[in-house]
């Protein structure tokens, strides 16, 4: 029962990693660049949900939907005003830009009086509820994380499989030039991908908030979501979730069974092993380019 509790706890944390990793993969497939601002977008999404439910007085579910929609708009505008002007520059420039965006966003949140420097609790209707399975005690927050991640993955699968928008995104990620010649609005799709990645990050933040509270530094969890994307494969959306689950469960087990300190380095040990044994990740594609 103790092992079951550890596995569920690790899976819940892994789902958070996987959702942030989804943002990494979505943006990489669309633009072949890595956005290190995903963790901070998750943090902004959590603060947006907090503001909607407390400052604006929205009901919980309306506040959640409002925060996700607001973050999708923010991601779209961010791509349009900040990222798009430097597309075509070396990948290093775009990576440094996303790191800078993360610092700016975190700094702006910190500057808000009585908000940015404090730790806040997101009011959720399932707070404090538990499920008893034998001697194992499972928090409702963890079950909600796992269930919401499963629902979101199903919705994304349906979108990419059956909707014209999802099929166009897949075509653009395979070959942007060919997609452009076929009449697909590639630039607009890139903005929508950034919006979708920001919305997914907001979902991760809203799910994580009842577990770790809302604070300006919660975005640093993105540093552990990056190994999840590497383990699953940077070109695979299902791989991001699987990689997140692996990292989360390994972290939970190592934190309980191994000496103190191993929990923090376990994800990076897994990444090193994956890079040695399978550099493209579990579900990554082997890409070849003629030169």
Automatic annotation (TrEMBL):
Protein name (database record): Branched-chain amino acid ABC transporter permease
Membrane-crossing segments per the record: 6-27, 34-52, 58-78, 90-113, 133-160, 192-213, 225-253, 265-283
Listed PANTHER family: ABC TRANSPORTER PERMEASE PROTEIN, BRANCHED-CHAIN AMINO ACID TRANSPORT SYSTEM PERMEASE PROTEIN LIVH
Family: Belongs to the binding-protein-dependent transport system permease family. LivHM subfamily.
Record keywords, A-Z: Amino-acid transport, Cell membrane, Membrane, Transmembrane, Transmembrane helix, Transport
Leader peptide range in chain numbering: none
Matches recorded under Pfam families: BPD_transp_2 (PF02653)
Bilayer topology term: Multi-pass membrane protein
Transcription found in the keyword field: no
InterPro entries: ABC_transp_permease, BCAA_transport_permease
Subcellular location: Cell membrane
Lineage: Bacteria, Pseudomonadati, Pseudomonadota, Betaproteobacteria, Burkholderiales
